[in-house]
Design brief:
alpha/beta; Rossmann fold; Helicase, Ruva Protein, domain 3; 4 domains; elongated; binds adenosine-5'-diphosphate; binds magnesium ion
Length: 420
């Protein structure tokens, strides 16, 4: 049911790959040089940071040039024997149907050995006799183990794309998912990802899946204190812990706000615990935690926090009895936190106005906002003269007047009346 967007929206052709134009051009012209016979460098070594499109560039290139792609990951060829098993595919003279072939050895960082032994040596031997282009990919090409290997390779550096290019890709994904996204929201996601396209798309999915609109307020909290990696780690530990101790440790290790974590756990329980009875049990634990939270708020007895945390972590973790791990389920960003972020300015303004009312009318500011502000609003919308009188009496500034009046025109009229 849940497909990772990095897979679902993986570029098929080079026209969809953003950034690294020059590196890709270099790669293409090297591949094309094979048409005139085996070139001096029989391998290309692509290197650079993760998530910038190294793998996908080679896949898309093979697709565009209609080449057969033989793709191996580090796990397939860690040792010399494993390399030798497919080395023949590189040294044959023709493919079965006479087409062109490219051999891709991805994630070379995980291979064993050096130039003299093990997997690295076997790769060098394979390149020496290759009749088809061999592409190697690693994060670090300058590992000393690769020094001999490098001599046989055309080195091609992949760099991080620009923020603009990351945004461009995010926009494309949003378009195919039918999401209207603010430019600023996408910019923040791109910036927070450190220009790692893969992680930017993962974040976008967590933030926007199932929505038709993504605003800056929806993502603004990404730049706040509780970094999402921290939260995700805690959630993972809670939902996949094997015992209470492990689950409880999750929260001790991390510096997260318990109220914030509560919202996260609450939002994600239904997606993580798919069995109805497990779900009921977990919700029960959370409900108890919430009772303690209420008591802490009322009494400021912070000793109770221990119970809140235990119920939220161990209580939820132990509810998993029958739910099967349902494959890859992305964590969801809590609606309530989104809502709080979206309404932050508004709530702040109400609080300030509430305090002004409290000073004059001797009610609590919460009650002032709830019970008195609505009446003031009616007056502000209807009678500029009377509104100005009230504004003066309460000592409201222009920002507050504008907020209560709800329109620029009305606010102006009230301010004009202030002088008289
Ligand atoms: N430059 C890019 N253009 C478009 N999509 C990208 C790009 N870089 C990464 N992606 C997305 O991230 C996923 C992982 O990219 P990948 O090519 O494996 O990165 P790398 O090999 O550099 O670690 C891709 O499937 C794709 O969805
Ligand atoms: Mg890769």
């Amino acid at each position: 049911m849940y497909a990772a967007w990095t897979v679902k929206h993986k570029p098929r052709t080079l026209s969809e790959v953003v950034g690294n134009e020059e590196a890709i051009r270099e790669l293409i012209s090297w591949i094309n040089s094979w048409n005139k016979g085996v070139p001096k460098k029989r391998a290309a070594f692509l290197y650079g940071p993760p998530g910038v499109g190294k793998t996908v560039a080679v896949e898309a290139l093979a697709y565009d040039l209609k080449m057969e792609l033989v793709e191996k990951n580090a796990s397939d060829y860690r040792t010399a024997e494993a390399v030798q098993r497919f080395a023949g595919l590189a040294s044959q003279y023709t493919t079965l149907f006479g087409g062109k072939r490219v051999i891709l050895l991805d994630e070379l960082d995980g291979i064993t050995g050096t130039a003299d032994r093990g997997g690295v040596r076997a790769v060098i031997e394979t390149i020496k006799t290759a009749r088809f282009p061999v592409v190697l990919i690693a994060n670090h090409a300058y590992d000393p183990r690769f020094s001999t290997l490098r001599r046989y390779c055309l080195l091609v550096e992949f760099k991080k794309p620009t923020i603009f290019q990351v945004i461009k890709r995010l926009k494309k994904v949003c378009a195919s998912e039918g999401i209207m996204a603010d430019e600023r929201a996408l910019r923040l996601i791109a910036e927070r990802s450190g220009r790692d396209v893969r992680s930017a798309i993962n974040d976008l999915q967590a933030l926007a899946q199932g929505r038709s609109r993504l605003t800056y307020e929806d993502v603004a909290w990404l730049s706040e204190r509780d970094r999402k990696e921290v939260i995700f780690n805690v959630l993972r530990t809670i939902f996949y812990a094997k015992d209470c101790v492990e689950a409880k440790r999750a929260i001790d290790a991390a510096d997260v706000d318990p109220d914030m974590l509560f919202q996260w756990v609450y939002e994600n329980i239904p997606y993580q615990l798919t069995d109805a009875r497990d779900l009921a049990m977990a919700m029960e634990a959370l409900a108890k935690a919430d009772v303690y939270r209420g008591r802490i708020r009322a009494t400021q007895n912070w000793k109770l926090l221990r119970y809140v945390l235990d119920l939220m972590t161990a209580g939820v973790a132990m509810s998993r009895r029958r739910s099967k791990p349902s494959g890859w389920v992305p964590f969801r960003f809590p609606e309530r936190i989104r809502w709080l972020a979206r309404t932050k300015q508004q709530r702040q303004m109400q609080r300030l106005i509430g305090m002004k009312i409290r000073r004059r009318m001797h009610v609590s500011s919460v009650r002032a906002v709830k019970e008195i502000l609505p009446y003031i609003r009616v007056i502000f919308e209807d009678n500029a003269e009377m509104a100005a009188g009230i504004a003066k009496w309460l000592d409201l500034d222009e920002g507050m007047i504008g907020y209560i009046a709800g329109s620029k025109g009305r606010a102006k009229a009230i301010v004009r009346n202030l002088g008289s």
